[in-house]
Amino acid sequence: MISIPSAIPSTAARSSFADGKYYSAIGDHLAPQGNAFVFEYDPAKKALRQLADVRKIINLPAGHYTPGKIHSHVELGSDGWLYFSTHRGSTKVTTDANHYLGDWILRANPKTGEMLYQVRRGLGRPDEDDLRREVHRSVVVRLDVVAGC
After folding, report:
1. How far apart are CA 121 and CA 143, in angstroms?
2. Which of 89, 121, 114 is nearest to 38 (CA)?
């Protein structure tokens, strides 16, 4: 049996299946200093591999808000990258005091292990216009949608 390492709380998951592998996102929900991860499970090898670490990808200074969950499906784009997005936590912690700047659309390359952010800031901040908030609630992270960002 394959299990996610015990050091990573398994409180939420968003998953997809592509190219014979299962991709799942999981987070600890511990914002303002949370973290979330993307894993790949290869059923042929019965192997679990961590592909993305949100805290490492966004690389913010200590004390800055880091999201504790991924709130989209993990989608494999036609370029071979996996795309996913974080989710704004409670309004009690998504504050200026915690340096909250919005949420993130991220990507990870399962072949090379490279991790990048695709869109930074400006998604879901409470004082932004209704259109941006609606985009955040309904985002489906796919290469076709974010390629121009």
Report:
1. 18
2. 114
Contact 107, 120 (CB under 8 A): no
pLDDT in tens, 79-113: 888 888 888 778 888 888 999 888 888 889 999 98
Could you tell me if residue 48 is inside a domain? yes
For the record, the structure tokens of 8 come out as 């990573």
- Structural domain boundaries, residue 68: 13-146
Q: Locate tokens 């941006």: which residue? A: 132
Q: What's the chain's Rg over C-alpha atoms? A: 15
DSSP type of residue 93: T
The residue that leads in pLDDT, 85 or 126, is: 85
Separation of CA 25 from chain center = 7
Q: For 62-133, where are the E strands, in sequence order? A: 75-76, 82-85, 105-108, 115-119
Maximum pairwise Cα distance, the chain? 47
Using a cut of 0.85, tell me whether the model's pTM lies above it.
no
In a domain, 141, yes or no: yes
